[in-house]
Each structure stands twice: as structure tokens, then as C-alpha cells.
Amino acid sequence: MIRDTGQVVLNRFGLWQVVGDDALWRNTLLVPSYVAGVSTLLLVGQAIAIALHRRKNVSDDVEESSTRLRGHISALGGPIIFTFKLARLVACLALVVLSAVSMYKVSSHLDFSHTGLTHAALCATFIYASLLAILTVVTKPLWNSLITKHLIIVLLAPWAVYVYRDLWPLATYTLSPADSAEGWLIWTKVIVLTFAAIVVPLLMPRQYVPFDPLNPSLVPHPEQTTSWLSMVLFAYLTPFVFKAYKQPRLTLEDLPPMNDRDTLKNLISESYADLDPLQNKKKRHVLFGLVLRVYLFDHVKMAVMLILHVIGSFAAPIGINYLLKYLETGGENAIVRPWFWIAWLFFGPLISGMTFNLYFYIALRTIVRAQGVLTQLIFDHALRIRVQGDVKEDSLTQESPASEHPSPEGSSNARGGSSSDVDEETVASSTSFDAKADDQSSETPKQESKPNTANLAGRLNNLVTSDMSNVHGGQGFMLLMFYVPTQLTLSLIYLYSLLGWSVLPGVAAMALLSPLPGYVVKALSSMQTEKMKKSDARVQSVTESMNVIRMIKQFGWEDKMSALLDGRRQEELKFVRKLRLLELATMNISAFIPCATMIVTYGIYTLAMGRELTASRVFASVAVFGIVQEHFQGIFFLFPGLIQAKVSIDRINDFLSKTELLDQFSTGSSAATSTPSASSEICIRQAAFTWSSDTEDVNLPASSQRSFALRIEDELIFKRGRINLVVGQTGSGKTSLLMALLGEMHNIPLGPQSLVNLPRERGIAYHAQESWVLNETIRNNILFGAPYDEERYNAVIEQCALERDLGLFDAGDQTEVGEKGITLSGGQKARVTLARAVYSSADILLLDDVLAALDVHTSRWIVDKCFRGDLMRGRTVILVTHNVALATPISDFVVSLGSDGRILSQGSLSTALAKDQQLSAEAAKESEVIEKAEHEVDQETGDKTPKTTDGKLVTAEEVSEGHVSWSAMKLLLVNMAGKPGAIVFWGAFLVLGLVTRTMSNLDIWIIGLWARQYELQDPQDVSVAFYMSLYLVNMLSGMLVFSAAFLLFVFGSMRASRAIHRLLINSVFSATLRWLDRTPVSRIITRCSQDIQSIDSTLSQMLLNLFDVTFTIVVKFLAVILLSPIFLFPGLVLVAVGIWFGHIYMQAQLPVKRESSNARAPVLGHFGAAITGLVSIRAYGAQEMFRQELYRRTDRYTRVTREFWNLNRWIVIQTDVLAGMFCASLAAYLIYSGHMDASKTGFSINMAIGFSGMILLWVRMFNRVETEGNS
């Protein structure tokens, strides 16, 4: 005889078979005690480990310095968290009292041996939990977090036991609560335990834990402090959403503060060791470092969320199966009550949706962080590369329209720039290095040539725009690796439980057809690679055109350039069209394979197995087959994005691993440029220099080598504290000599005593041959990050002849110079750049042909006032110049270079002129020009720049408020129609779309009709072949109609994309010069690259999906109403509520999207400015200043983008709740009204699930179209 009542109930549950007194340890009431025992052992071990390795942190110091209650409460997270902890403590003490009362009552009426011991053990568990709860109130944060985790686990154990013993039986027909004998005590314990174990952990805010305890955020992001329930429901965003709903326009300051774990500084600190090629000695692929090193834990969490979502996705099929079985049998032999399965239809999909939502939250957070890290990594690596170096593989090489586009910087002569030696920054942006030697004279046997490479600035623009956008599509690889295989495996297992071994032939059919997608995917991959090359060529052409747009307008080349860019666009669209055709093939294949599997399975089940198709089996299996079909379609939707992401990641990796670096960063370099030396001499000894490390043999005659080589075969020592001149013929290597000193050229030792020494301890200042300025004010360009000293600053302004120029501007030195200094003449830019070098505290100044862009009078002023002024006294100046006559009075040491890149002489100017007759002739000619100019009046007045009041040149981008305007969408929709006209085009598309979705839903109706025949007639009389043929004909017809609709839409979207691109280019080319002055080139390039790409792919795809969902909604809603007219009103309410939610959401999402787009352009602008001035940045040692500026701009973009995706998660969870409520309500009505048979009920629930999900999906799709419509 079994004396323990609880044990008897356990027997009825079938969990444990208790036999006799020796089975006490199997009692479920003892499970909490086991958990408490394990917790005690682990807690003691963890406490010992912490005590041995404890480190002081900020929170500990705060606590020890303050013993007041207020300080303790603040250290634990504030009064709200402390109140929750106190409430949980009270609940634990109440559980101790209640369990003691239960133990007393049991021991008074029953034998204490079994039941009493179990209650005593449970009471001891609650006492242990109370002790832990007390510790969570009194201990420091270091211990508090650990103890809280143990407390939650200890409380969850008895709660789960009581749910199993006493709550689950309420949902069944055959079981009763195991502890009902306790009466009100058991239900009181369950309520109190639910509060302590579930409510408090879910609702209690979390304590803010800063990433860096020494630098915590002043105001943490709400996601770092909100409760877990608010986190999974994204309820913490609700106040912000309604604020945006009420506020006309949102700005960056209105957004929630930035999560300190998203700041670029903190991201870099935890990622560079695995990503930076200089720190990652194992040379791993950057993808490996991101996935398996830096964000491994995030990917583990994503995998867990996906698995939970897969399990939860079977809630609807299982619920439908049991509900239809209940209808088929009239409730006979039912174990679980129908209301449980109705609730299951609500909570199961909701929890599944929440886990899927969390997956996307983690995935998108990881992608945004990875994009920030990769952007900074590309920038940092660009600071190390040799400007003329290039990737030797062809992965980054694009078609260069060098023959059709002049170099952007090379065109600066039109504005007064120098036309002499090629500047290193001109090289950085030119499309061909060999196209610009000193004077491009054919008489010179060899010039200071550079290797021919692709456009560095354009290539980097592509990496941080198009490629970085493509990286976003790579987050789907987790779906491909974990989600899809797990879902398909569990689907087949569940189908086997429903349909038996008939599933196996279906799986075999699926396996036979599975190679088909592989061929398409392979073609997609190669086609995507080719398409990216064409996109790169177009973006590069646009970049080059925008950089020289003033010259284009001056020469009247707008039509020619527009035609050329349109040709590039046509080439790109050819590959876009091929990609879309391949996508159509993948969609048809992905739709056919699951349907073929279903036909084979049902055919075998009815014909070979001789079984009847019941409604419960049909609609449950149809739901699972629908999951399989969605996954097959999803796979092929994922592949394009994954392929694009893989190609882009490979391009980024190639840039990081195969780009030629400066010698100081190259591990395989044969020399050590700028060899550390204790000497303060500026010298070069026994060394040769080339623009590429490919050229190592410099002993061949110079004329026989492909690239220029500078050779210092003996020793060259510049005089310290003096002005040193570097002179020579055009193309002799004067600029290369400065580059060699700065370490920009490849150093090839010519002897054992080889040395290059440029002391940097007291600073280096550099004036590039082609002046480089930032898109800042004139003052900031001169200061260049140095502290402002008014006296020194005014002296610099006077000595650099800038006083009169500043008087031309109403805002004076607060005038913005614009991108590439567009508001300044070539002479003004040269003097601003010179002023930067003079104002700096650098001891050594390297000036490359600073007088070339100046007239004679200004040059004379610079020589007399600046070079002979007090600010230059005692500083070492190395001046490269062609103006030998002007520079003669200030020269203390002269180096003359020959046409072969060797030193002709060093010492006095007379020696240099004696050894170089051509140079002597040029000097004599310059003297005549100077003498003549002395009698002319200086006509320089500077650029006729429009007067401004605040100095602002670049205007903020115009931001539309509210929804995307109809005129913007009309631009797309009307251009899609083209010549056939809007009525014909859209009428045909609407008809084809509705017919497609009608035939798609007829598939399910045909299967249901087939199953119903077994109820209406003898199973032997049911014609299986007829219904299978009917299903197959309907499926194939639907594919044909869908293909027609898809092709119609795709060709229309391409037509619109071509027209919009042409309008965009023409509008830019026809813009006024003033508009171009006020609009950054980076903003124009963003419109022509990122936004055009969105129109090509994302926007068109989203618009197609929106139409498809709309057609599906109409068909499914009509089906539900035809079978259950009473749900017309609830369905309309669902539509209205969904639209209202979508409207509120869009009020927040649209301004955030616009802020995101606006925040991206400054990042690109900073990139462009830095890349064109790489040598200047490195010479000044200003790398860290530029890094910090990129940190700031990237953090701004990250902050906005994170909120954009978080808002997307907010609307998703709201729609999931509404969809679940609608489906559960319809199921309850159909089950308990009893007016419909199982087949019609199954069809109605199936349609309702699709409708409720689709109506809210429509809201989300509409919102996505609007957000993408900002492009």
C-alpha cells in the first residue's frame, strides 16, 4: 500500500513509480531541496574563488566610503530595485511561514515519515531562499548579483513543481491537483511563490553595469536598466514612441542616450586583438575573427534563441491538431481541455515570436557594432598603407575610367593650384599615377613616376558604403546554419508522427530535387560578383565626376558626363536584371520542392498505406508543410544577401591583408625606414627609394626600370636650425626626397651603413605640394588641433599674407572653406596650409613647393616676412622649390637632384647651378619674370566668395517631416509604368497578383476538400488521382501567374531605377555652383551610391513584398468572412488597430531613419578628407586626432541606427500580440459554438492565422517601404 497521497498522484502522472518507503527520494516535493543543496555547494565554491581573486572596483570603493542607507540603496541600483528586493524578501518569509503551517497540519493528521519529511525539506528550502533574499538586500553589488542568480533558481524549482503537481491537472479531464488536501494554503503558496519567482525577476529593473567602471555613462541607455519583461517586449521604447507621436520633429538629442557598450572606443578595445592584421599574427580571415572570436557569445545566444523559436513554431500545428481531434471525436477520450489548446494558440506563437524577436535584436545589434568596428579598422589600416601601394589581387581592382575622367585633385590647377611635381595627395585620389609626372614632358627620359593603381579614395568609399551595407545581409547566416536545419528536422519528425512512413518517400523526393537550388545559387554567386564590379565602376565614376564637377561645368561637359554615367548604369542594370531572373528561378524551385514533397507524401499515405486523410492530420500537416515551404523560400531569399555579404567581407579582408603598407608596418620589409637613432641629424645614407616594394633591383639603369627610384648613394645631411633648399629639374625627385624622409617610400638599403633619420621628438610640420585643407573654418585649418594662442595666431596670419584675404569674408577666419577648400583660391589654400605648418610647434618643417601657387608679390612677402620672420627662427626648414631666384637670399644649404634621381650637388646654390645647366637656365628665366613683376600691380583679390554672416558654407540636409510624400512615391510608381501607362501596367499587375494569391490559397482548400471526402463517402470511392491532379494543376498554374507578375514588376522597377538615376545625375550637373559649394560631395555620393542601391534592391523588394502581402490579406480575409461572417467586425478592428500602431510607429521611425541617413554622410566626408591627406596626417602625427573624430561621428551613426532597429523590434512584438489574440478568439468561437465541422474549422483557423499574421506584417512592410522610401 502506498501511504503518501502525493506519491499516488505522481503514479497517475506516470512520472515516477513509487514503491514502498525506500522511494522517498523520488518525491517531486524534494526536487527544490536538491536544487537548494546544489546551489549551496556552488555558492560556497564561487565565494571562495571570488575571495581569492577579488579586485577592487569603482562600486566597491563607493560602498566602503559611504555607510549610510541612502548610499547603500544607490549602490544596489536605486530605490525601485531596493523595493523589489525587499518585497521578494517578504514573500520568501511568507513562504517559510506557509510551509511551516503546512508541515504542522500534515504532521498532526498523518504519519510524519514521508509527507512530513517532504514538507520539512520544502520549508528548509524556503528558509535558505529567505537567507539568500536577506543577503541580496545587505550585501555589496559584487556579491549581490551572484546571490540574486542563486535565489531566482532556488525559487523557480518549487514553482515549477507546484505548476506540475497542482496547476497542470486543472487543464485536464482526468487529473486533479496533488496537494488539494492543503486547501487554501496550497493556492496561497502558489500565488506568493509566483510573485517571488516570476513577477519580481521579470518586473524588477536591472542594475546598470558600465562597460568601463572608471568611465560610466552619466545616463545609461534604458535597455541597460529596464526589467527583463520590458526588455523582451521592448516596452522601454513605448515612452519614446509616443513622444515622437506627439512631437512634430525628432532630433538626435531626443533619442535615448547611447549604450556605452556600443561606443567605438569600447568596441575596439575588445575586438582589435582578433581583427587588426598587425595584432592578429595568425592572419585569420576577418569573418573568422568577427564570428568565432569577437562576437562568439552573441552568436551562441542567437543560436539558443533560434532553437527556442523553432520549438515554439510547432505550437500552432500541435494546437490545431488537438482542437480538430476534439471536434472529430466530440471530446471522447480527450485528456486536455480545449481551452488549454486555445491558450496554447496564443501563448505558444507569442513566446516563439518573442524569441525570434530577441534573435533579431541580438543579430542587428551585432551587425551595427561590427559595421562600426570594420569602418574604424578600414580607416586605421588606410593610415598605414603606402599611398601608391595597391592590392595585388584583382578582388579590389575595379574598372578605372582613367581615360575618361581627369584626376579630381589634378584638376585643381583650374583654380590656381600648382602644376609642378605630383603631390602625394593628388596621387591618393587620382585614377592613374603614371598620367601625371612633373610637367608631362616627353623630352625627359625618365620622370618621377608612380605605379598605376585604382582610385584609392573611391575604393575606400565603396568599402565603407556599398560593402558595409552588404555586410548587414550577412546576419542571415545564423538562420541558414541553425534555424533552417533544426526547423526542417523537427518538421519531418512531427510529420512522421502524423503521417507515418509516407513522409520518407516525400523526403526522398525532396533530396532528389535539392541539387537544383545549388546550381542556381552558384550562378547567383558569380553573377553577384560581376554585378558588384559594375556597381564599383559606376560609384567610382560618380565619385570622380563629383570631385571635378566644377571643371565639368566650366568646360560644358555635363551632357557627355551624364551620358557616360548613364552608360555605366546601363551596364550595372544588365546584371541586376540577370540577378532578378535567377531569383525568380530560386523562388519557383523553393515553392515547387515542398509542394512536390506534400503530393508524394499524401499520395503514399492514401494509396500505398491505405489510410484516410482526416481533418486533424491534414491541417496540422499542412501547417508544417507551410513551415517547410517558407524555409525553402527563405533559404533562397537569404542566399542573395549572404552572397553579397561574403563578397563584401572578402573585399574588406583583401584590403586589410593584401594592401601594401609603409615599411614601418611591413614585417617582410628589407629595410627599416626612419631607423631609430640617437642623433638629431636629418640624414639619408646609402639608400634607394621606390614607390612600390615590388622594385628591389635598383642597380639597373634608371631608364630601364618601370618605376621611379630615388638613390642616395653616399650621405645627405641637412643643416639643423637652417633653411635647406631642394632644387632640380621637373621630375627629378624633389617631392620623393621629402617622401623618403617621411617614410612614405619603400626603402632599399644600398650598403651596411644604410640609414634614414628624421627626428620626430619635437614635431614635424608638412606642406603638401597640392594644398590640403579640411572642411572646417579657416581658423581650425590653421590650428589643426593645437591650442589657440592669439598673439602667435595673429603673427602667423600677418606673415602668411592672410590678413587681406580674411577681410574678404564677413565671418573672417570663421568662414568654412568647404570640401577641398572650394571657397579658396589655389594661392589662399597654399597660404592657409603654410600657416598651419608655421603655427604648429614643430621643430622641423617640410615644405613642398609652397611658392608655386603664389604670385610674385605674395611670394616675396612670404620669403621676407615668413621665412625671415621670428616664428621661423631656429627651426629647420626643408623647402622644395622651383623658384630658385626668390629662395636664394634665404638658403643656407642647397641640395640639387638630377634627372636620374641622384644627387648632383649639395652645399651652395652656385654649386648646384654650375652642375645643372638646365636648372641654371630656368633660374635665369625666373629672375627676369620676377624683375618684370616687381613693376606690376598685385591684382590678387581672392575668390569672389558670396558674403556670409556666420561663416557657414555647408548647410544641413533638408529633412522632410512626417510620412514619405506622395510626390516621392509617385516618382517611383509612375516611372515603373513607363510607356504602357500607369493604368495598363498597374491594372495588369494587380490582376496577376490577386490571381496568384487566390490560387495559392486554393491549394489548402483542395487538400481540405480531399480530406472531407472521407467523411462524406466511402474511402474506397475517393479518387486520389483526381485530387492530386487538381492540386498539381493549380500549383503549376499559380507558379506561371506568379512568374508573370514578378517579371512585370521587376522590369518596371528597373525602368524606374534607371530613370531616377538619370534624373539624379542630371539635377546635380545642372545645379548652381553655389549649391555645390554648400552641399558636401560625400552627401551627393551617398545619394548616388547607398540610396540608388536601396532603390535597386531593398526598396523594390520591399514594395513587391508589400503588394504580395496585400493580395494575401484580401484573399484570406474573404475566406474567413465567407466561413465565419461574425468575424467581419473583429477583423476590421484588427486592421484598424494594426494601422494605428503602424502610424504611431512611423512617427518615430521615419525621423530616426532620416537621422541615420544624415549621420552617415559625415562619416564618409571624414573618410574622404583623411584619405586625400594621408601623408599630411602622418607627417603631423595627427592620426589619433583623426581617429577620435571618426569615433565621434561613427558613434553618432551607431546611436541612431541602433534605435532604428530597436523600433522595428517594438512594432513586431505589438503585432505578434494582436495576431495571437485574434487567432485565439476565432478558435474559441469555432470550438465552443459547434456550428462547423472539423474540415471547415481547420481551414478557417489556417486562414485566420495567415490573415492575422499578414495584416500586421502588412503594417510592418508598409513601414519598411516608407523608411526605405527616404532614399
Automatic annotation (TrEMBL):
<keyword id="KW-0812">Transmembrane</keyword>
<feature type="transmembrane region" description="Helical">
    <location>
        <begin position="617"/>
        <end position="639"/>
    </location>
</feature>
<dbReference type="InterPro" id="IPR011527">
    <property type="entry name" value="ABC1_TM_dom"/>
</dbReference>
<feature type="transmembrane region" description="Helical">
    <location>
        <begin position="117"/>
        <end position="139"/>
    </location>
</feature>
<protein>
    <recommendedName>
        <fullName>ATP-binding cassette transporter</fullName>
    </recommendedName>
</protein>
<feature type="transmembrane region" description="Helical">
    <location>
        <begin position="303"/>
        <end position="324"/>
    </location>
</feature>
<keyword id="KW-0547">Nucleotide-binding</keyword>
<keyword id="KW-0472">Membrane</keyword>
<dbReference type="Pfam" id="PF00664">
    <property type="entry name" value="ABC_membrane"/>
</dbReference>
<feature type="compositionally biased region" description="Basic and acidic residues">
    <location>
        <begin position="435"/>
        <end position="449"/>
    </location>
</feature>
<feature type="transmembrane region" description="Helical">
    <location>
        <begin position="477"/>
        <end position="497"/>
    </location>
</feature>
<feature type="transmembrane region" description="Helical">
    <location>
        <begin position="1031"/>
        <end position="1052"/>
    </location>
</feature>
<dbReference type="InterPro" id="IPR003593">
    <property type="entry name" value="AAA+_ATPase"/>
</dbReference>
<feature type="compositionally biased region" description="Basic and acidic residues">
    <location>
        <begin position="925"/>
        <end position="950"/>
    </location>
</feature>
<feature type="domain" description="ABC transmembrane type-1">
    <location>
        <begin position="302"/>
        <end position="644"/>
    </location>
</feature>
<feature type="compositionally biased region" description="Polar residues">
    <location>
        <begin position="409"/>
        <end position="420"/>
    </location>
</feature>
<dbReference type="InterPro" id="IPR017871">
    <property type="entry name" value="ABC_transporter-like_CS"/>
</dbReference>
<feature type="transmembrane region" description="Helical">
    <location>
        <begin position="1243"/>
        <end position="1261"/>
    </location>
</feature>
<feature type="transmembrane region" description="Helical">
    <location>
        <begin position="1210"/>
        <end position="1231"/>
    </location>
</feature>
<feature type="transmembrane region" description="Helical">
    <location>
        <begin position="1109"/>
        <end position="1142"/>
    </location>
</feature>
<keyword id="KW-1133">Transmembrane helix</keyword>
<feature type="transmembrane region" description="Helical">
    <location>
        <begin position="184"/>
        <end position="204"/>
    </location>
</feature>
<feature type="domain" description="ABC transmembrane type-1">
    <location>
        <begin position="990"/>
        <end position="1267"/>
    </location>
</feature>
<feature type="region of interest" description="Disordered">
    <location>
        <begin position="394"/>
        <end position="454"/>
    </location>
</feature>
<feature type="transmembrane region" description="Helical">
    <location>
        <begin position="1163"/>
        <end position="1181"/>
    </location>
</feature>
<feature type="domain" description="ABC transporter">
    <location>
        <begin position="695"/>
        <end position="931"/>
    </location>
</feature>
<feature type="transmembrane region" description="Helical">
    <location>
        <begin position="73"/>
        <end position="97"/>
    </location>
</feature>
<dbReference type="InterPro" id="IPR003439">
    <property type="entry name" value="ABC_transporter-like_ATP-bd"/>
</dbReference>
<feature type="transmembrane region" description="Helical">
    <location>
        <begin position="584"/>
        <end position="605"/>
    </location>
</feature>
<feature type="transmembrane region" description="Helical">
    <location>
        <begin position="503"/>
        <end position="524"/>
    </location>
</feature>
<feature type="transmembrane region" description="Helical">
    <location>
        <begin position="339"/>
        <end position="362"/>
    </location>
</feature>
<feature type="transmembrane region" description="Helical">
    <location>
        <begin position="34"/>
        <end position="52"/>
    </location>
</feature>
<keyword id="KW-0813">Transport</keyword>
<dbReference type="InterPro" id="IPR050173">
    <property type="entry name" value="ABC_transporter_C-like"/>
</dbReference>
<keyword id="KW-0067">ATP-binding</keyword>
<feature type="transmembrane region" description="Helical">
    <location>
        <begin position="146"/>
        <end position="164"/>
    </location>
</feature>
<dbReference type="InterPro" id="IPR036640">
    <property type="entry name" value="ABC1_TM_sf"/>
</dbReference>
<dbReference type="Pfam" id="PF00005">
    <property type="entry name" value="ABC_tran"/>
</dbReference>
<dbReference type="InterPro" id="IPR027417">
    <property type="entry name" value="P-loop_NTPase"/>
</dbReference>
<feature type="region of interest" description="Disordered">
    <location>
        <begin position="925"/>
        <end position="952"/>
    </location>
</feature>
